[in-house]
Amino acid sequence: MAAAVAGGVIGFVGTDAAFVINALTFLLSALLIVRLRIPARAGQIASAATRGLGRYLADARAGLAFARHDVLVSRLIVVQALASFATGATGALLIVLSERHLDLPPAGFAWLVGAIGVGALLGPLIPNVLAADYRDARWLFVPYVVRAIGDVLIAILTPLPVAVAILLVYGLCTSTGMVVFNSTVQGAVPDRFRGRVFTLLDVTWSSMRLLSLGIGAVVADVFGIQSLFWVGGTLLAAAGMLGISLLGTYDFKRQALS
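Request: output the structure for the sequence above.
Response:
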């Protein structure tokens, strides 16, 4: 929702006024935090959090062992790593595509960001409305393929309305996939390992995203921003197809009940 609002603000009042509004929101947040009442027991540390470094490392090793041997998590990490590598650079360098390929001013780029934000706001409604049970590999990975098609198309087509429509669908698929992903992993991973699995998935995603940013910047500089989006879209489609191939027959419902 924030992205949609920010894009609209920049589009209507310009970047200078948008930065002023952004600064005011931080000031408002600080004032609200200052007014919070902190309970007297808030500073107490639970006994489970004082187990020492040895117990922490043991828990981490147990989580890695579970991830390595679990059918869902071991395969999901591979797919997530490839998807993050595919989208890290394209997401960060969308502004470069906006300037060099679509020839848009800053206000025009704001409409692209706003389109993604609106799509992300509406996306979580899709699986709840269209599926009685979305614990299925297609709900997890088909959005990758749709986003991949969008990456390729936006690097070919230049009209602003077309780009806005593509990124609206992109936002829809991104938030839909996120909701389905979180819900599916929560239901399929045992309670005692759930936190460690989510941490491992987050670390994998962030690491591959950082690698993608470094390599993507070089690709965009040497071969052009359009080439980066073509490669990113191809890799994202490969991630989606790989996910369907590896987990297409996985019984998420049975695992959730076990």
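The domain at 2-16+53-257 is CATH 1.20.1250.20 (Growth Hormone; Chain: A;).
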